[in-house]
Amino acid sequence: MFELNNILRQNIKNLTPYSSARDEYTGEASVFLDANENAFGSPLSNAYNRYPDPMQHQLKLRLSSVKGVPARNIFLGNGSDEAIDILFRSFCNPGVDNVIIVPPTYGMYQVSANINDVEAKKVLLTDDYQLNLEGIAEAIDKNTKLIFICSPNNPTGNSINRDDIETLLANFSGIVVIDEAYINYSRQKTFIQELTEYANLVVLQTLSKAWGLAGLRVGMAFASEEIIEVMNKVKPPYNINEASQLLALEALGNVAQVNEWIKQTLQERDSLVLTLKKLDFVLDIYPSDANFILVKTTSARGIYDFLVQHGIIIRDRSKVELCEGCLRITIGTPAENETLITTLQQYK
């Protein structure tokens, strides 16, 4: 049975978070002399001399309407990577606790574990890139606090079986983190709607992929109000800058444009797969629910180097466990995909 206080670090339970000037005051005012800001403005066309809303209230309200989740269940971070790091710092005692990751998967789970001096137990995915539930069950011990699952998975592109994830949620006494960075491209529905069913569920999403805002660094975590309160307690006071908040608010008003780009991306993905399959050095292309494909080849490094020479950059994943011989290719514009194909047709 999951109980938040049983896995929360003692020092976090006792933590008094930093109280910023804007935390202590809410409401309307015309003169702000509380935060030691430059009262004369900024040397820019827009004034950024005031500190941003530390809890991003307006942005969370807009996201609430887009995602169908109460604002109190939303955490915003400097990319999803900040949310990942805060989960480690909130729930994992360095040198004592451990987490479970399921390679091949997103590399920041391991990096964050290393930074926080937390053991990351690896339970490899199966040959068809699904969870090894028996292996995960064997790896769990009394110090296992988090399980990270990326779905759709990076770098393989496939969605993880929903029933398997629900099995973990129902039986694990720690937190299950589902990273849905690519969910906008997936046929699988988001786990956000399951927040009321599972107190130990954290869902990560981002504005960096389908929303095209990678340069703004706005990541989201959706969880119970209790977990969100912990994350807000641990985060830096002004972790999302004013420009990112304003631009993200503007972008969230263009849902139709984003949906059209998603549609085009999926069409381009299907077209690219069909064309790549005709190349004799392509051995397999794995099913994808993301805006990229994993391609098994006869010579991953040789193909990668050849493309680099022609100014085309993809990812060589051939040294990643269970991805031997594989290249990860992001779906580009029609023109970019055409350039890729034309160049690959010259490879010998």
- Into which percentage range does the β-strand content fall? 5-15%
> What overall geometry do the principal axes of the alpha carbons give?
globular
State the end-to-end CA separation: 57 Å
The total count of strands amounts to: 11
Q: CATH superfamily of the largest domain, called what? A: Type I PLP-dependent aspartate aminotransferase-like (Major domain)
Tally the structural domains.
2
Mean pLDDT equals 96
Task: Write out the strand line-up for the largest beta sheet, numbering strands in chain order.
Answer: 1-7-6-5-4-2-3
Helical stretch tally = 13
Structural class: alpha/beta
CATH top level assignment of the largest domain: Alpha Beta
Computed over alpha carbons, the radius of gyration is: 22 Å
CATH architectural type of the largest domain: 3-Layer(aba) Sandwich
> Sheet with the most strands?
7 strands, mixed
Description:
This protein has 348 residues and is an alpha/beta fold. The protein folds into two domains: 4-253, Type I PLP-dependent aspartate aminotransferase-like (Major domain) (Aspartate Aminotransferase, domain 2), CATH 3.40.640.10; 256-344, Aspartate Aminotransferase, domain 1, CATH 3.90.1150.10. The protein has 13 helices and eleven strands. The chain has helices at residues 4-7, 10-13, 21-24, 57-67, 80-91, 108-115, 133-139, 162-171, 225-234, 242-251, 255-276, 300-309, 334-344, and strands spanning 74-77, 98-101, 119-122, 144-150, 175-179, 201-206, 219-222, 282-285, 292-297, 315-316, 326-330. It has a seven-stranded mixed β-sheet, with helices on both faces. A four-stranded antiparallel β-sheet has the order 8-9-11-10, covered by helices on one side. Strand 4 (144-150), helix 8 and strand 5 form a beta-alpha-beta unit. Helix 5 (80-91) packs across helix 6 (108-115).
